[in-house]
## 1
Amino acid sequence: MLEAQDLSKAQHWTSPDDEFSNRASSLTPSSVDFLQGIGAWKYVDQSRVQPYDEMQVWDGANESRMQFDWAAEAERYNAPRRSLATMTENANLTRGLLARISELSGDGEGSLFSRTTVAAIENGEDDQDGLNLSSWPVLSLSSADTTKSVPSRIAARLLIGADGINSPVRNFAGIASKGWDYNRHGVVATLKLEPKEDQSFDSFSDSSPEESASATAYQRFLPRLGGPIALLPLPNNHASLVWSTTSNNAAYLKSLSQTDPESVIALINAAFRLSQTDLEYMFTLPSTPSSTFSSSLSSSSAPQHPNSYTHAAELAWRLPHTPQTPHAPPSITGLQPGTLASFPLRFRQSSSYISPRVALLGDAAHTIHPLAGQGLNLGLADAKALVETIAYGVAHGMDLGDVMMLERYNAARWAEGVKVGGVVDLLNKVYGMDGTVAGWVRGLGMRVLGMDEGVGGYLGRGVRGWVMRQAEG
Ligand SMILES: Cc1cc2nc3c(=O)[nH]c(=O)nc-3n(C[C@H](O)[C@H](O)[C@H](O)COP(=O)(O)OP(=O)(O)OC[C@H]3O[C@@H](n4cnc5c(N)ncnc54)[C@H](O)[C@@H]3O)c2cc1C
């Protein structure tokens, strides 16, 4: 295993109990099952993961709403209660995976090369006195790892490219990757939330992961702001923010976070409560480091129009004039310093996940919009399928890396990657459209999906069940 980054940092990652990394992922139950099955989940610090079984989704353009309540659906069909998903910091997961690799290798991670970059890949040569490597990839390595002797070249019977969106392995294999940039950024941050009075339902929970199945995730679509804002629960009244928005808005939030974090908190609270017009206006306000208003919603009892146009004051003034959804998240009270960052959002799909002696997985094979939190889940499902393919090849004495053997992996994963990426892209397009007709059609769709009674209820329950089964993997 070759990795350009310093894996010892990942192996020794620690964080105070009340701080969380801004890079966190929502794992489906089947991803967690897979991680349990390979023996890695036990090394993931469970006090830092947060399962949730409910999701509130609504549209800022027309306030139509859809709710996924796994506990209620399970009760309706007398099925075992499971989490809808589990939030995990990526660093916690990576540390757990490395601990499991270390346990399995038993030789001090002899085949794990950290701080080692694949500088070039080319086909090997046919050595008349030795092996014919002309169809084997040969990797030239450049290493800064001083803890062990790293070879300068490695020949691979099977080269697995899990090397991200710009995959050098994919380029070497000549596999086409098509797609587009969304011209949007995913703004992430770690937030602190006000505890709700009733922690037993519809709130972020501060109980242990085993008993905290009542935590809720929230997502509001804001087409005029560039995309959805999502709040995903982390333990002890923390949450992970993923706000897909325009590059200008992302730059505005980032610059504001350095000088005026209270205003960022006010903007995020506003994004779950105010109209899109109000929000657009708030994105034009200057930074106000001397804000005298608290950005917490608990201080929103002063409905006079502010003399100083701070973000928090605007929120406090506009809130009483805006109809409120009962399903908004608890008030955000804190922004963990240094956690607000943004990532460009892109869509890519490879024309194949295999070529002779090469298999692609994860973002190297497919990169998708994060609105449904499926990118890493797809990558883990790829890994599972590739392991099964290799095990099948070994059991049947096949040449590992031969394209006939790898075809099994491609058949299991390529169409699935195209389907999930396509559905997520379609959702992004539908929920990115502004305008009366688009909003009306979306609203109708969401109302039907949210129904429990009559023909709409039949359809709604069916579609909700389908979506939840997809989430389960
Ligand atoms: C804002 C945001 C939120 C998201 N939320 C979720 C979520 O909730 N759930 C979910 O499932 N997914 C989520 N995703 C998607 C998820 O983060 C990605 O799908 C996942 O991280 C991809 O992992 P990967 O290992 O395939 O690629 P990467 O994370 O890009 O890793 C590639 C690795 O290859 C290494 N590498 C590259 N080139 C070389 C080289 N030449 N030599 C050596 N090493 C090399 C890099 O150092 C890197 O470590 C989110 C994405 C974003 C942007």
Note: The pocket of flavin-adenine dinucleotide is lined by residues 2-5, 25-26, 117-118, 162-164, 168, 186, 188, 242, 343, 362-363, 370, 373-377, 379 (CB under 6 Å).
## 2
Amino acid sequence: MPIASNDRPFASDDDPRRTGAAGAGSAAAARGTGSAEQAADGAARIAERVQAVPGSGIRRFFDIIASMDHVISLGVGEPDFVTPWPISEAAIRAIEQGHTHYTSNLGLLELREAIATDVERRYGVEWDPREELLITTGVSEGLDLAARAIIDPGDEVIVADPSYAAHAPAIVLAGGVPVSIKTDAAHNFALDPAAVEAAVTPNTRALLIAYPSNPTGAVLERPTLEALADIARRHDLLVISDEIYDRLVYGGAEHTPIASLPGMKDRTITLGGFSKSHAMTGWRVGWAAAPPDLFGGMLKIHQYAMMSAPTVAQYAALEAVRAGEEYVVSMREEYDRRRQLMWRGFNDLGLACAEPRGAFYAFPSVAQTGYDDETFAEELLLREQVAVVPGSAFGQAGAGHVRACYATSYEDIEEALRRIRRFLHHAPMAK
Ligand SMILES: Cc1ncc(COP(=O)(O)O)c(C=O)c1O
């Protein structure tokens, strides 16, 4: 993946610093006006910053899985629970009542007010529902809006490696340059503030953080977050904070929104959602909170590109905020049970796994098996019909690990662990 890393701070030929939007003039010249020869060369008609983004590394596995029977999937990062019925019922009611038109570009005021009240009660951060809160089509849209609103061509954005597969592409598609900071199991995959500070250059525009983390399950402790906030303030950086897993923390871990730290609300875009906490991935609804100037930029893109988030889904989300708490708590308890089974299970099998304290992923090392992570995932799928995702799909620092999602039944995780045990007898290191 053509991402500048902190090992490779200078632009190289395959680096978006050279080939990204900063070189858009020459790209347009090279692209020409779309002749038959260029059409034959598929890529010639695609903008360079889009070419710079590889297709999803996870997709290939899902395609293989779809063609197989009896697969236990620890691959897909979404809840196995069905959306709690009262939430779905609120959407049905909305349809019956004819709420099938656009909402305000900002989203339903009632929903924005409910989110603002909920977040203030939970974390003490106050966002004005009329000027600082936007309902988005999932956190995915919020991420795109945030990146496009603040990134100018060539701006650098610091991001953890490994990180959610859409983070670096969102930066590249907005014309920016992701600068990745390695994290590792020895430090529970927490971002190291010293490494972040060392990566800051005059071109650094923002820091993109996402904790609890997909794919590692890492949670940032408050002192680390304070150190990152200090760096942002001293270097005048903006922060995009993807907090989609904020409700899924375990074992006494606490989530702290970076916007709640002194001086940070004014430089932070916070992204929140319902997909994971309320088992609502298919509804496509989330929210973004930002200080009024950044909010204005995001709203401009949102109103032209999206108009408004799906109306029926907004009514469902309103019910989720008002009455969804008991479901969040019971799903979280069940995830915690599965988390302990999986994390301990991997360590018992000799696949060293740092304790995942948030989200619903474990990220064990498979290096000691003698397989690289891609081969491990592919062989495990073909031999034992268990799907995990190679860690390198989330960045170079993910290599040698696999991501296993425990948002699947306890019994399936038990069976998956049995199959992995059998599989390990055939691993190169076992021979
Ligand atoms: C870290 C992270 N951010 C955002 C998303 C996408 O969220 P949504 O369904 O709200 O678009 C995901 C989904 O896996 C994720 O893991």
Note: The domain at 59-82+326-430 is CATH 3.90.1150.10 (Aspartate Aminotransferase, domain 1).
## 3
Amino acid sequence: MKVSPLCRAVFSCTVLLSTAAFSQGRNRPPMPPNPLPYDLLLKGGHLIDDKNRIDAISDVGIKDGKVAAVGADLKTSDALKTIDVKGLYVSPGLIDLHTHVYTGTGERGSYAGDESVYPDGFTLRNGVTTIVDAGSSGWKNFDDFKDKIIDRSKTRVLAELNIVGSGMRGGKYEDNLDDMDGKLTGDKAKLFPGVIVGVKSAHFTGPEWKPYDQAVIAGNIANIPVMIDYGANRVERPLIQLVSSHLRPGDIYTHCFSGLRGEQDQKTGGPSEALLIMRKRGIYCDVGHGGGSFAWTVAAPILKAGYKPDSISTDLHIGSMNNGMKDILNVADKMMVIGETTQEVIAQMTWHPAREIKQEQLGNLSVGAIADVAVLSMETGNYGFVDMYNTKMMGTKKLVCELTLKDGKVVYDLNGISADMWDATEHSADQRQSRRWTTFNERPFGATHGQRFPASVPVGSIPAPTTPK
Ligand SMILES: [Zn+2]
């Protein structure tokens, strides 16, 4: 029988598609139950969990995407898979409170478009498992943002809704007082509890208080915090008045170390009266580094005076991703250069931001918590850390993300600490169960492995596949 080219093409496409479907797990046979206490055990790491006041060598056992046990000497025989994390820090998955990820709309010069980035390329490789998009969308385009990004990302993407109904699309929209409706914004947020976790005001250039007061109205309706990027510095609305009488305790002031709107005392270089009032009232100080919101001349003296941020965030977007900001670990490194400890910066990327957005199921590794985990190494050397003015401060420590778990499974592994050697003849863990602890493909081992490379691995020398107990 003659096979037409079209038919051949359809056949090979079908084979390709079914192979792809298999490797993505759709056609795989169901996994056998795991009778052991853990799917995955992280062994011997230095656990830093601010919520539970843990700063010690401790193992973490994980099952069904949740933390099953935390403690010294958890048994490897109780887990399907053990990863040795000795010499590394084990942290709850990092939370980045201020990012811009509403891309894919095709709109130029807009944070609801080309100024934003797709989250997964910037998050998991830095230990970040949860991000908050800070106001790229408003109540009018949140559904589109949710469809395009939130529902399609591996990263847990949450949102602060812009008080501007049209979102962060440039001055024409962001200065339009008629598009700032606290009631409509709050009502929209109430429809998505745990996803819309805040209200954002940003980039406003006018003298009015309306954006901030409407944001607070929305925050009160949905019982969520407001995050303020204070826009243009206007004498008509001084920072001290914003934090004294417009914002509520629990609201968030981002770009805390920009120095552009009265954050710094001009005589001492330390925190201004406004920053001190913020702290006294329980308004959070968030870094929000971005492309133009972190200056050494501001941050260093304020830190030296003992004023530390509540949370470290990136303000990730196309304008910050490749300049001084780089990624959240680089921002954390900077805070260590000017006096913070590793324990403090980890707290400011985990439990603190979880509390700020009232998502206390995140940012900790209590038993029963979601098993989002960042495993970090501390490199030492000579490093330059660059601020918004392209000036640098030198440092000796650099955090590097070695391994990231999301919902209990490996989603990033820099040096293959979860992987077996390429020429191993047996799997270190039952490969039928691998989907319980990793999202990566597992190549068959044993005889099947040998058959793929008969020239390099003599088939007769390899034992038959075994079924691990
Ligand atoms: Zn921003």
Note: The longest helix spans residues 5-23.
